[in-house]
Amino acid sequence: MSSIICPYCQNPLQPTEERTYTCENNHSFDLAKQGYLNLLPVNQKKSKDPGDNEMMIAARRSFLELGFYDPLIESIKQLVNTKLSFQSDNITAFDAGCGEGYYSEKALNNLPHLTTKILGTDISKYAVKNAAKKYKNNFYFVSSVYNLPIADSSTDLILSIFSPFKPEEFKRILSNSGYVIIVSPAANHLREMAELIYENFRPHTTNIIEKMSTEFNHDSTTRTTFTLDIKSAEDLLFLLKMTPYYWSTDIERLENITSKKELSVTADFNIDIFKSK
Ligand SMILES: C[S@@+](CC[C@H](N)C(=O)[O-])C[C@H]1O[C@@H](n2cnc3c(N)ncnc32)[C@H](O)[C@@H]1O
Ligand SMILES: [Zn+2]
Q1: Domain residues for 88?
Q2: If I label 17, which of 25, 120, 208, 247 is the partner at 20 to 30 A Cα–Cα?
């Protein structure tokens, strides 16, 4: 796992004895029971428990495993297959802000003509714990996308779905011929849900292309839009708990949604592809 580096001195981290990784300066990290590493230095934690909490992670897993967002996965895989060309068939793919791991497993695995070594990180230890426990062939670690414990030029494909990112860090870890795929909400994402909460729906806007332009050339934007036909109050609640709405809206307004047993909601994504300059 030589593409993983020590968060303190940036030297490669190597597995030494069975469940420990160390660098040449003897900084040492124990592999957790579930098979992940915690590589987030305490001084990079902005709170005791940064990132998504246990309930958010559980809701995300429950909803994603129902397959509602699988058309997005198909779009990503098709784009990788038709638009990207790598120098080797063996690539290292990295899921930045991986959540509970559904996308790293489903979107980066089994790509036509490619064998992928899959890495994933998230600042939430609940996210990483759940990812590592379920997807044992991938390698997950706790870290911040703003300060990645990954060696320079060691990844070929970076996937970032609805997560924060820092273009300079992506540039540093990406190989010369690598790609970054960023998925973000397009104008009407979850529109019907938002309309039940707010008086006026404000379509999503984005500055991702502008933000990435300091380090990357923009290759393309592909918009993927489909309908989520949700048929139970339970599934609806899973979706609601994945969104910021659940955590920032008062209970009376949330009842406009939680009182419903079904709802058709628009899923609307932009998939942006970037290449190093
Ligand atoms: C909306 S979720 C998306 C998760 C996953 N990509 C998905 O689509 O299911 C955003 C994720 O970013 C993580 N996150 C927030 N700040 C982060 C940071 N500085 N570094 C790494 N991950 C971070 C959160 O813990 C959360 O899991
Ligand atoms: Zn070190």
Answers
A1: 46-276
A2: 120
Is residue 116 packed enough to be buried (19+ CB in 10 Å), middle (13-18) or exposed (0-12)?
A: buried
CA–centroid distance, residue 149 to ligand 2 (Å): 10
Q: Looking at the CA of 24, which ligand is closest? A: 2
Q: Summarize pLDDT for 121-142 with one digit per residue, the tens.
A: 999 999 999 999 999 999 999 9
Domain-located, residue 238: yes
Q: What is the pTM of this model?
A: 0.97
Ligand nearest to C-alpha 102: 1
Average pLDDT, the chain: 95
Cα-to-centroid distance, 51 and ligand 1 (Å) = 7
- Atom of ligand 1 at shortest range from CA of 51: 25
Phi, psi of 14 (to 5 degrees): -125, 145
Give residue ranges with CB within 6 A of ligand 1.
51-52, 60, 97-99, 102-103, 122-124, 127, 144-146, 161-164
Give the residues of the chain that fall short of pLDDT 50: 1
pLDDT per residue over 6-56, tens digit each? Answer: 999 999 999 998 799 999 999 999 999 999 999 999 888 888 889 999 999
217 in any annotated domain: yes
Q: How many residues does the chain have?
A: 277
